[in-house]
Amino acid sequence: MKLALIQMAAQTEKEASLQLAESYIGKAAAEGADLAVLPEMFCCPYSTENFPVYAETEDGNCRARMAAAARENRIFLVAGSMPELDSEGHVYNTSYVFDREGKQIARHRKVHLFDINIEGGQYFRESDTLSAGDQITTFEIETTEKSRDGRSGTPLRCGLMICYDIRFPEFAMKMAQQGVSLIIVPAAFNMTTGPAHWELLFRARALDDQVFMAGCSQARNTEAGGYISYGHSIIVSPWGEVLAQMDEKEGMIVQEIDLSATEKIREQLPVLRQRRTDLYG
To answer: Does residue 82 contact residue 62 with C-beta atoms inside 8 Å?
Structure first.
């Protein structure tokens, strides 16, 4: 399959972010991508005070525009994440997933909220304005278009987490136990944690669970002030090999991945079967 990671920075004007995302989704489809991924909070500058201001309900314009982009380009789309407002006034960091017809096939609300205070580095508290999700999210896509006689393409089960979720190995392990071969992570690591842990975490989770890991980051926007994203969107194989990685600038990578690698590696190095769940659940 071909996987596209769209590394863009959220604009102050939401409409500008949506137009930028739509442009890249079209380019990804033109390059033959089966699945395109946007970054965390792709339509909202990343700050706690912005999340309630930019939040929309599930029937809002941002979600509708991304559904339309998936449908118009005949592409599966993980629409990064956006602030979602529910009927009770809670705001979530939410990722929607759409199929080639623009139908929503998954929704993930960020489970682990980014509340940190690193001495001499980053301070941030998502819980000041966001609520936490409580679900493990997996979904299935077809990696090729349906043929003319109606037969489906190769199925692929994916897991979905958002940024800070990747730091919790049990979370990815549960997805692997549910049969995923690819875990997708819209993210916005910062300039403290990014250089130290970004690549390390993606390689570790890939090795832990023998899955492809794909992290799609916001591009670095030093002119925006406040929170500055690390960038470096990345794809890692189940062997822990970095297949592709960007720098900090805006752009896109389209990477072909060999899905058969997952089962081959799991057969040759059967750590998933050898886990001692009688000792550690």
So the answer is: yes
